[in-house]
# Entry
Amino acid sequence: MTIDHDLGPAAGQVSGLIAGVREDHLSLATPCEQWTVDDLLRHLLDLTAAFAAAASKAPYPAGVSGGLAGDWRNRLDTQLDDLVAAWRTAEAWEGDASAGGVTMPAPVMGVVALDELVLHGWDLAQATGQPYDADPASVRACLGFAASMSVPGEEAGREGLYGPVVPVPDDAPDLVRLLGFAGRDPGDGWRDR
# Structure
């Protein structure tokens, strides 16, 4: 078995964005409906630990991240490094993997982990006014997954993962198409909620 995707570039982008988060950003709205930056960062703490455990085929009790208490920036950076290292083993991509109460083939779970990093990196950048230059290979991998989850009959599978598809032009850049499939307004429309 080979390593299907490297989560390193997407994790590095999220890490760079974390460094730019100020305390006054924590209460700001994000493109994730009803989530503040604080909520999004808590989610990133949870998902990095959960998906690292999934790669290692180890159980992970939900909610053990401890939120933003203490030195959350360093903790999140460490967890991002752990996530990347866990998915850089061939064994991570073999068999099944479980995260968030869902079990699926490990290659799909790895793409879901990547998708979380890419999309929530964009969310964090949008909310905090930082630039986001998504890794093209990561976006392409996520785009294939998001497109497959956006066909008729996949509505139940989208529940809790994505919002309703936002139409974007077929010839839009890959990141914009990914955002649309993931139910995100690639413009500033989310700010009007």
